[in-house]
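Example noted here:
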Amino acid sequence: MLNSLWLGFFVSAALSALWRTLAGDVAVYSAMVDSLFAMAKLSVEVMLLLFGTLSLWLGFLKIAEKAMLVQTLARWLSPLFARLMPGVPSGHPALGLITLNFTANALGLDNAATPIGLKAMRELQTLNPHPDVASDAQILFLVLNASSLTLLPVTIFMYRAQQGAPDPTLVFLPILLATAASTLAGFLSVALMQRLRLRDPVVLAWMLGTALLLGGGIALLSTLSVAAIASLSSTLGNAVLFGLVMLFVLVGALRRVPIFEAFVEGAREGFEVAKNLLPYLVAMLCAVGILRASGALDSLLTGIRYLAEWMTWDTRFVDALPVALVKPFSGSAARAMMIETMSAHGVDSFPAILAATMQGSTETTFYVLAVYFGAVGIQRARYAVACALLADFAGVVASIAVCYWFFG
């Protein structure tokens, strides 16, 4: 999938460049070559911050693991997943791994979540009577991963900081609302297909509790001005981040965890993870760079913008759509689109803020499908792709609506 996507970027760029050359624009090839080197330089600049940020958060997460905080959370959430996945026996190792995976996703630690998620998928495969066909539990797990409910989009904050945002956490609440819409759409679509008992008291308690929290937050926001909403988003984002750090450190110290050694151990893992991402980031950023320099992306966006104008819509959202268009295929490509949008329009421009919100609202559906199902040899995904794409669509629509609400 990624090979085809990467090749498609280059082929589309070449065809667009040829068209522009025939139209008399002889400078297009120079612009494409310049873009290649500019994006390679930007990749290294992004990686410098990525090394520190991943090392930092994996270090703190290691303290939380050794202090049994993550395991405690897993025990609290296991009753819920036991009801949502009735085919998985109570106490099965998959339930704990699933909870750990969702916890890491919620904290914005994507690279820490993936290895745990793969272990969970392998455990679920041991219960699968048809090894080449996705089970109900595996589909629910995959769709919830594809919708990716993220409470702390740390990586989004990191990229905004790298691009010079004075307040990197400005998008905290927009992402929270958009990713909640994506997750709800994905969950309900799978529940409908699997006829899950949503009236179970435990499921109802979790759903109603979550709905009350989100509803209360939305009701509060509706009484505030745009400036007050932006201020609250910034304050809440920073407070939650610092509060988690203090919780991990203090509970670790009280439970006699060697917190410094644990942090260094986790940070070393983060450094190794970040190091392996550089070639991937260079490849995707350069491909995206020449796609924009060739004019191919602008041509597609011009068509969408023309349609929006014809329907008398505001067209500022169009500049952020490249993130939404490629996110189901590749997180790296979408990340590259987001960074490029920040560079082209300004990190706090409406398109850049919307791009960041879209990036945080969903996961890479086809990448998750390939990695998680491919790891256990599943060939028939059944309705998993349709439900995951529905979640993606809900996340994109919610991102646009929330950003116009907050910043429009």
Observations:
- The chain has a mean pLDDT of 80.
- The longest helix spans residues 28-66.
- The chain has one domain: 26-407.
- Residues 26-407 form one domain.
